[in-house]
Input
Amino acid sequence: MQFILDFVYLIAALLLSPKVIYRSITQDRYRSGWSQRFGKVSKRHPDKRAIWIHAVSVGEVNAAKTLIAELAEQLTNCEIVISTTTDTGFVRATALYAKNHEVFFYPLDFSFAIRRAFNRIDPAVCLLMELEVWPNFAAIAHKRNIPVVVINGRLSDKSFPRYQKIKPAVRWMFGKLALVLAQTEEYAQRFRALGCDDSKVIVTSSLKYDTAQTGDKVEGTDQLAEQLDLTGRTIWVAGSTGTDEEILILDVFAKLRNTAPLSNLHLVIVPRKPERFDEIANLIKNSSFTSARYSEIKGTQQKLAAATDIILGDTMGDLRKFYSMAKVVFVGRTLVPMGGSDMIEPAALGKCTIFGPHTFNFKQTVDVLMQNKGAIVANNTDHLYDIVLKCLTVPAYADEIAANGRKTIIDQQGATQKTVKAVSDILNA
Output
């Protein structure tokens, strides 16, 4: 089986190599970490048992924050190592965890790379965030009696049918998992349907609720608002936006600014992917509004000369600060069919949170927020205009949505302790 998988991976690598090379040259991606991707990874304390946590990208890296802190505090006899797949995930993981934990790129699923990684780390348990299960990884870990646990597990409406099409292969792979800690009962049932033993699937809720900051202020927000000359002004933030979405946001913003009560409205746009920052900067520059890039003044004493119509948030790690300044938040990648972005953060901050209809990657969060009237769905751009206008001109309505959203997030918390207990039970077995 491993020989067949390695051969398939080799063919796929050859087919994808032109795309990887192109992105490396034009987008500055995939340029680092190749020795790690082929299994040359390490840990800092050879004498300690290792807990290997894998988080694919930025969202999973952020969601693991409270779990990693609790594991480090409660399991002091263990070392935690953290892997990630994407460049942005690696940057974020390095910023959050590299001071205390080893951070590296996840090995490609070639059998030799996985074996080398296991030889170098010798993990006591592997924790895979959400659904990052690969066949060679699962098979080699199982052969070595290394428990593999899916934490914060989910099978979205999009991924579940795909797995059903290759159910025999998935059943073989999922049958090697030691435990699945699913976000919801619906996701739990999907894992069971794909071959996970009923006794090995537990519902814990989502770790993302535990990482959400539910206070009124985010550290550094006041300084950011002062530097951007936005203190006391009405701000609409469009966060984690995706391809073809920013132009729609700009059109809605133009209509809002032509509405008398909102003539002094300001917009902050924060694209999800860093490689699109320049593209969106040019798009905004070609509009009729004054604009500025936050990257040009971040870390300096410089301030904007006057209040600017549109701010481009083209830095990493500052989205939460921008959300904290907002009166109303639109969560991106939802007006276009891209599956959505994390709406937990703005809701937890007590912001009136709006998103579009395309949220299949965040179904559970959307369902619970909508059930408790803690967010608003905009069906299209015209509807988005109407909603933002109402939220900004009828403060009591926006405040009620915001309060419901924050309460909903708080009520969903608790997954971290359940996960820590499950991991401790496995290590002590």
